[in-house]
Amino acid sequence: MREHRLDIELTEKWGEGIVAVEAGESLALDVRLESVHEGILVSGTADAEYTGECGRCLTEISAPVEVEFQELFAYPGEEETDFEVQDDHVDLETLVRDAIVLSLPFQPVCRPDCPGLDPSTGELLTESTGADDAAPIDPRWSALRQITDQDGAAGSRAAEKEES
After folding, report:
1. What is the pLDDT of residues 9-33, one digit of tens each?
2. Residues 6+ apart with CB under 8 A from 26
3. Would you list the domain boundaries of the chain?
4. How many DSSP H helices and E strands does the chain contain?
5. Nearest to 105 by CA among 31, 53, 41, 35
6. Whole-prediction pTM value?
7. Which of these ranges, 27-41, 88-102, 125-139, has the smallest mean pLDDT?
8. Distance CA 29, CA 41 (A)
């Protein structure tokens, strides 16, 4: 068994969505290699930082990403495997890249309660903005508003009759 701690600088961008781990970013690897009958069992953790933009308000964000991985690198033989030992070495790049890219958030946000952008003006919403504005009424439902207004007017007329 061998344990290694590696700090690697990425040479290419990992991820293609709203957020990604950029080229030049540092990747910290803690790896444990164990010899087993079938091959080499690799387990460990990888830490990096992703950057991108919030999916709601489009502000720049960055956050750490940590993944755990474990995979058996089989000795070359008759059976086809995804990962094989090649010349007494294991290539961890594909394993670690896939683990990190799959753990990146699909819809990242700058904070959990991010209100996003105003759909009509495109400006950043604040917590107080949405409460004062009434939602626009679909014109197909505008006839129902007249019914509500009539009931309110009819109710106030009935109250006036009782007073007199």
Report:
1. 999 999 988 999 999 999 999 999 9
2. 7, 8, 9, 10, 48
3. 2-103, 136-163
4. 3, 5
5. 53
6. 0.69
7. 125-139
8. 16
- Among 110, 129, 111, 109, smallest CA distance to 120 is for 129
Kindly report the backbone phi and psi dihedral angles of residue 137, in degrees, each rounded to the nearest multiple of 5, phi listed first: -95, 130
CA–CA distance, 42 with 71 (Å, rounded to integer): 5
Q: Which of 139, 50, 31 shows the shortest CA–CA distance to 91? A: 31
Which is nearest to 67 in space by CA: 40, 49, 89? 49
Phi, psi at residue 147, to the nearest 5°? -65, -45
Name the amino acid, one letter, at 58.
L
Residue 22 contacts by C-beta under 8 Å, 6 or more apart in sequence?
10, 13, 51
Q: In the chain, where do the E strands start and end?
A: 2-9, 19-20, 26-36, 39-53, 60-74
Bridge-based pairing state of the strands 26-36 and 39-53 = antiparallel
